[in-house]
UniProtKB/TrEMBL annotation:
It comes from the Eukaryota. Residues 1-151 form the Josephin domain. GO terms for biological process: protein deubiquitination; proteolysis. Its EC number is 3.4.19.12. The active site is at residues 14, 119, 134. It is an enzyme of class 3 (hydrolase). GO terms for cellular component: nucleus. This is ubiquitinyl hydrolase 1. The keyword Transcription regulation applies. It is found in: Nucleus. Pfam families: Josephin. SMART domains: Josephin.
Length: 151
């Protein structure tokens, strides 16, 4: 089996590590993800302004912190989705009714981006084996098919 890239957690930048572990290289930096988050914030601000810049909703919106990133280094699923678009990849939410209708067995997929208690991590298949590439672990963790189904 080839070497499996595993980026270890630094700070609270789990989305960065999740993406880099998914793509198997150091492709995203905190600065690039923050840029995507700011772009999303600006798009949201422009949409909210369509209702009138003097509206109560718009003024309240401007007072709220970004939902796309925070000071701890946490990035939203929207940032992750937009980052993956640069690679021509699309995130399909596992709980999406459209995905559920397809009746796809998750064991036949190649990878998953997971979130548990505000922590992003990647589960990815290499060959016939699944690995947990959680950046909080010391290294890649082999997942049995039975354990995979529990994820």
């Amino acid at each position: 089996m080839d070497f499996i890239f595993h980026e270890k957690q630094e700070g609270f930048l789990c989305a960065q590590h999740c993406l880099n572990n998914l793509l198997q290289g150091e492709y995203f930096s905190p600065v690039e993800l923050a840029s995507i988050a700011h772009q999303l914030d600006e798009e949201e601000r422009m949409r909210m302004a369509e209702g009138g810049v003097t509206s109560e909703d718009y003024r309240a919106f401007l007072q709220q912190p970004s939902e796309n990133m925070d000071d701890s280094g946490f990035f939203s699923i929207q940032v992750i989705c937009n980052a993956l678009k640069f690679w021509g990849l699309e995130v399909i939410h596992f709980n999406n009714p459209e995905y559920q209708k397809l009746g796809i067995d998750p064991i036949n997929e190649r990878s998953f981006i997971c979130n548990y208690k505000q922590h992003w991590f990647t589960i990815r298949k290499f060959g016939k084996h699944w690995f947990n590439l959680n950046s909080l672990l010391a290294g890649p963790e082999l997942i049995s098919d039975i354990s995979f189904k529990m994820f």
